[in-house]
């Protein structure tokens, strides 16, 4: 395999990892602050993608679509938090799983009622549609590169938000001790709604950006959600830093596995067999990664309790 | 009913209703209802398996589709090799396919048990939300594995032409197959009731409520939970083999996380930790699907609403509504 | 170490960050005795119990029980080896009756937790020893009451009954009198007085009257260190102890 191809796949892995991070950050934040497991996070990703595709189709502007995705997912997040999630904070995880599973059914089917079962297509904005030439004549998709940059900026922004701003201090205080921040006079209900809405907006944003690479369809958020869970298990629950490390790791391992494993098996198998074995095993690679990390660090790479 | 609680009474009514159901369906000239009832029995069995881990042991597994699907593929692989007269593998020894249900069930139980052992060994090192996410992730791993492995149909799944055989029974007759499934459902219920009341069951319930205490008493919670998880996976795996036999078809859908969610929903709709919770849950689910599925393509939207309502406002499930609070002692 | 020593704790350490929860603790428990462990709140008494039971790993040091090093054994192993423990805050199976809690200990003692078919209700091999243990702590009339409905003091008794049912080779009792009325405490003192002849007791207790009337030896733990070990008389007259601890209390 050529170095160029490998490098291209590495970038693809990074781009995938950045998208996963946008999903995982919201999930892990919501878990860390409110102690809630939210299966419907993937639905917010889907809502973002549909909002972007619909608005872009109506206005012809991808950028308006992107704004719409953040607004729609954030707004959906606020509604969901106020009407459902809020009642679940004091419930056990089983209730949270079931209620948010119910939300998936409602949101997925609701989306199908509105947009139908056929996928929508979303085009990347014109000037990002082609490849860009990086050093040494190496060419790479401008849009994917943009996702990496934007995702990186969002990760940085999130880090600054949590470590440097008043809101961030409150969020971290909320993780540490609910009663304490209540005593400080912070309105917990509002804080929780804001945190949930931030997570939702990030998921919607990720969905919109990915919508131009994949097709926009019902159920598109679920595979990403499950990968985001793997990310959180690997990174350590409740930790933004862990989510970042886990996302990049999962993105790169998954992408490289798909490219390298068939070639690896081709060394001692015929091509057809190598392709099928390689494909089957590479689909499992990140779960094997998760299993290995669980064996050695059951609390994840970045443990909050350390 | 002085000596009979309302819950027991309800259980007896449901059992009798299921036992005579084929006669009713035949009298109504609706043989399709027998297939529906067979699905109720099979889904009940799958949920009985989960209920042992979830209700009795407090292990919120969101990955039971893995065992359901493995059971299904055990049927699909054995039966498809039997129908083409090709061995499954020839090295180091020859394994042939089979169309005998008894062997298929055994293989389904053993294979899903092995899978549960591995998944349990890893996921039970954690608890709470981690456990939920990890069981989900491992089930998803098997799902993607079956999708990308082309030998047994990949994404399209595997069909078989004829239902498998059971000694002395014409399994092609819907009623006969229904009674086979119903018998296994009752066996599963009996087994789970026996386990719950046994010494092992006592340790398992203690593991759910207070692990620290169980350990201080000298019983290792991990081993108890792992054993329960494996038995639970085996029961759900058997149900998977039956479901595949009913449909004469198995595909990765049986392994999907929607399936895990559905099995869990069955347990919850009926009532967590109740003996007949899974049966009531499966009854409600199938009736709901039949009625609303006939009216609208979007019936799962309404299922979601009902489920949300049950979780937020009726935590005892249907049995809780009908028979009051669960009794413990 | 003589034949009389049942439990030997050697140079045990546990740090939480900069805090030394236990600092080079060495003490032992001999056959037939009650060895009381006293000290102000936060002195590390409960940490020490957790280390002995295997609930917390030690940074260094050894726990030797009946001549055997317990290193590498978890909580369940150590309980099986004969460490009968009660918790500072009652830790019971709340949805079980008192009897079924004790039956759990009996089945552990019998090593039969992997029996799947026989119903435990009416299983005399479990109920009879469990009832006997409840009787010894005067709880037999409450046997069928749900643990969640027992009073605080009754739960303390139930904890002791569960430890008894394990037939342990040493008892580790973490504040067994806490929350008991004067009448209950008095009964319990009489009971522990006898119990020491079955198996020695390492007793953590704040009730000084109980400690002084029961203990054969007392160790005083302050800031994770044992500052003195000796008879009741020694400890009462030890100026360092008076300074650090009894000065205000006695």
TrEMBL record, chain A:
<feature type="transmembrane region" description="Helical">
    <location>
        <begin position="16"/>
        <end position="37"/>
    </location>
</feature>
<keyword id="KW-0812">Transmembrane</keyword>
<keyword id="KW-1003">Cell membrane</keyword>
<keyword id="KW-1133">Transmembrane helix</keyword>
<feature type="transmembrane region" description="Helical">
    <location>
        <begin position="101"/>
        <end position="122"/>
    </location>
</feature>
<keyword id="KW-0472">Membrane</keyword>
<feature type="transmembrane region" description="Helical">
    <location>
        <begin position="142"/>
        <end position="162"/>
    </location>
</feature>
<feature type="transmembrane region" description="Helical">
    <location>
        <begin position="183"/>
        <end position="213"/>
    </location>
</feature>
<dbReference type="GO" id="GO:0006865">
    <property type="term" value="P:amino acid transport"/>
</dbReference>
<feature type="transmembrane region" description="Helical">
    <location>
        <begin position="44"/>
        <end position="64"/>
    </location>
</feature>
<feature type="transmembrane region" description="Helical">
    <location>
        <begin position="273"/>
        <end position="296"/>
    </location>
</feature>
<dbReference type="Pfam" id="PF02653">
    <property type="entry name" value="BPD_transp_2"/>
</dbReference>
<dbReference type="GO" id="GO:0005886">
    <property type="term" value="C:plasma membrane"/>
</dbReference>
<dbReference type="InterPro" id="IPR001851">
    <property type="entry name" value="ABC_transp_permease"/>
</dbReference>
<dbReference type="InterPro" id="IPR052157">
    <property type="entry name" value="BCAA_transport_permease"/>
</dbReference>
From TrEMBL, chain B:
<dbReference type="InterPro" id="IPR001851">
    <property type="entry name" value="ABC_transp_permease"/>
</dbReference>
<feature type="transmembrane region" description="Helical">
    <location>
        <begin position="9"/>
        <end position="26"/>
    </location>
</feature>
<keyword id="KW-1133">Transmembrane helix</keyword>
<keyword id="KW-0812">Transmembrane</keyword>
<feature type="transmembrane region" description="Helical">
    <location>
        <begin position="222"/>
        <end position="243"/>
    </location>
</feature>
<feature type="transmembrane region" description="Helical">
    <location>
        <begin position="32"/>
        <end position="54"/>
    </location>
</feature>
<feature type="transmembrane region" description="Helical">
    <location>
        <begin position="102"/>
        <end position="122"/>
    </location>
</feature>
<dbReference type="GO" id="GO:0015658">
    <property type="term" value="F:branched-chain amino acid transmembrane transporter activity"/>
</dbReference>
<feature type="transmembrane region" description="Helical">
    <location>
        <begin position="176"/>
        <end position="195"/>
    </location>
</feature>
<feature type="transmembrane region" description="Helical">
    <location>
        <begin position="275"/>
        <end position="295"/>
    </location>
</feature>
<protein>
    <submittedName>
        <fullName>Branched-chain amino acid transport system permease protein</fullName>
    </submittedName>
</protein>
<dbReference type="GO" id="GO:0005886">
    <property type="term" value="C:plasma membrane"/>
</dbReference>
<dbReference type="InterPro" id="IPR043428">
    <property type="entry name" value="LivM-like"/>
</dbReference>
<keyword id="KW-1003">Cell membrane</keyword>
<feature type="transmembrane region" description="Helical">
    <location>
        <begin position="129"/>
        <end position="147"/>
    </location>
</feature>
Automatic annotation (TrEMBL), chain C:
<keyword id="KW-0813">Transport</keyword>
<dbReference type="InterPro" id="IPR027417">
    <property type="entry name" value="P-loop_NTPase"/>
</dbReference>
<dbReference type="GO" id="GO:0005886">
    <property type="term" value="C:plasma membrane"/>
</dbReference>
<feature type="domain" description="ABC transporter">
    <location>
        <begin position="7"/>
        <end position="248"/>
    </location>
</feature>
<dbReference type="Pfam" id="PF12399">
    <property type="entry name" value="BCA_ABC_TP_C"/>
</dbReference>
<protein>
    <submittedName>
        <fullName>Branched-chain amino acid transport system ATP-binding protein</fullName>
    </submittedName>
</protein>
<dbReference type="GO" id="GO:0016887">
    <property type="term" value="F:ATP hydrolysis activity"/>
</dbReference>
<dbReference type="InterPro" id="IPR003439">
    <property type="entry name" value="ABC_transporter-like_ATP-bd"/>
</dbReference>
<dbReference type="InterPro" id="IPR003593">
    <property type="entry name" value="AAA+_ATPase"/>
</dbReference>
<dbReference type="Pfam" id="PF00005">
    <property type="entry name" value="ABC_tran"/>
</dbReference>
<keyword id="KW-0547">Nucleotide-binding</keyword>
<keyword id="KW-0067">ATP-binding</keyword>
<dbReference type="InterPro" id="IPR051120">
    <property type="entry name" value="ABC_AA/LPS_Transport"/>
</dbReference>
<dbReference type="InterPro" id="IPR032823">
    <property type="entry name" value="BCA_ABC_TP_C"/>
</dbReference>
<dbReference type="GO" id="GO:0005524">
    <property type="term" value="F:ATP binding"/>
</dbReference>
